[in-house]
Amino acid sequence: MANCKKLRLKDAALKRLLSVVVVTLLGVLLLIVSLRTNITPGLSELDEDLSEITDIQSFSEKLNLPKQNEFSIRLAKINQMPPRNRDLYPKLAKDHITIVLYVHNRPQYLQVVVKSLSKVVGISETLLIVSHDGYFEEMNKIVEGIKFCQVKQIFAPYSPHVFPDSFPGVSSNDCKEKDDAGKKHCVGSPDQYGNHRSPRIVSLKHHWWWMMNTVWDGLKETRGHNGHILFIEEDHFIYPNAYRNLQLLVSLKPIKCPDCYAANLAPCDVNLRGEGWDSLIAERMGNVGYAFNWTVWRKIHRKAKEFCFFDDYNWDITMWATVYPSFGSPVYTLRGPRTSAVHFGKCGLHQGQGQTNACIDNGSVNMQVDDIDRVANIRSEWGVHVYDNQPGYKAGFKGWGGWGDDRDRQLCLNFAQMYHSYNTSLSALTMS
Predict the structure, then answer these.
(1) Where does substrate bind (predicted)?
(2) Quick one: DSSP state of residue 224?
(3) How far is CA 159 from CA 71, 133, 205, 351, in A?
(4) Residue 161, marked binder
(5) Is residue 48 part of a domain?
(6) Cβ–Cβ contacts within 10 Å for residue 195, how many?
(7) What is the domain-level CATH number for residue 228?
(8) DSSP-assigned letter for residue 130
(9) What gap in Å lies between CA 133 and CA 207, rounded to an integer?
(10) 406 is in which domain, residue-wise?
(11) What is the DSSP letter of 324?
(12) Phi/psi zone of residue 118: left (φ > 0), alpha (ψ -120 to 50 degrees), beta?
């Protein structure tokens, strides 16, 4: 009898132990599944087939886009991954304004803008899309550390930084500087000043144009989005009240300035901090914290030829000098009388990534944030002051060059058609 009792006790203990083991294993499996759905896979974990990527690539081939290498294909797969932090912020606010952060390879700059964004009131309500000009590990780590909102990363798969030995990167037979193509038997067409392409420079305009086409027409999260999208860069400091001020500007724009194309967080002159008046301001669109909707994007997209053939490597100067003037009427943006974003960069292009040339004084930015900058400071009862005679590029301005190679111009035009062709075909398949 005693032995039977001991056996029963041992059986009961074994069953309890097995139950604990099973529950523990289930918990571990659930944790693994949860982590896998919330973390963007590394480049080595992206071998799975994504049918949408394959479809897009087939259209890319028809458009004669550069043949993608393995690295480029992997980046294109990352672009289709869902946003991270959806477990922390499962739903976006109904009236949210998506934020797109456009970055190069300046990690110290990126740390500043990310820290400023973390303190923005309402940031947890929206989606932050970070668009990278190529893949840079330090930049990637900073973005992966963001926990204050949903965040999605996209990487320009046709960036010169992704093609080390072929176009749009540098080919061995490319003409350089002021080479004579006929004498040197090299490839390339020079700009209006006789200079051949510099991949590091042309990547700026390529990235911006690819990003715009991808955000508006290529991503599941924003394709067909009717609301405004805010665009900022890695050398922009964003004030805590920026998002709430932008929501007010977007809501007031149809009433206060129905002819305004956009809303801006900062004056078009990056050296100014605003007038301090009790009035809204209508002026030409600035390049610091600008937001517009899909209707405006369609107008811009229809001017792809003007954008792609203007001989200037700067996307913003190209817009000011040729695209906006082609609309036939002044292009105004609405902003407040006090800035909600500041350009702090001291150097451009892809400088600033090292400790010795960081372009930031003492490795940090000391931006004064007053109490008025912490809460929405735009009033619906204000009138609008319009700057009628706006400074800008005069008729006949031909650009600063750097954008004369026929290959760059064709790649730019292909970006404009890439998702258009793909989405049109998708619609046709859906209707059939």
Answers:
(1) 133
(2) T
(3) 11, 6, 10, 17
(4) no
(5) no
(6) 18
(7) 3.90.550.10
(8) E
(9) 6
(10) 70-430
(11) G
(12) alpha
Task: Give me the helix-helix angle, 294-301 and 199-217, nearest 10°.
Answer: 130
Element (H, E) at 128: strand 127-132
pTM for the complete prediction?
0.83
87 occurs within a structural domain = yes
Q: Is the pLDDT of residue 34 over 60?
A: no
> Which residue's structure tokens are 């209006």?
192
**What Rg do the C-alpha atoms of the chain give, in angstroms?**
25
Q: How far apart are CA 2 and CA 11, in angstroms?
A: 14
47 annotated ligand-binding residue: no
Percent of the residues in the chain that have a pLDDT greater than 70, as a whole number: 78
- Could you tell me if 234 and 110 are in contact, meaning their C-beta atoms sit under 8 angstroms apart? yes
Name residue, tokens 């294993």: 25
Grade residue 392 by pLDDT with cuts at 50, 70 and 90: confident
Alpha carbon distance 202, 326 (integer Å): 23
Structure tokens at 242: 């920026």
Question: Using 50, 70 and 90 to split pLDDT, how confident is the model at 138?
Answer: very high
pLDDT of residue 51: 45
The verdict on whether residue 235 carries a ligand-binding annotation is: yes
> What sections of 94-222 are H helices per DSSP?
107-118, 137-144, 181-184, 199-217
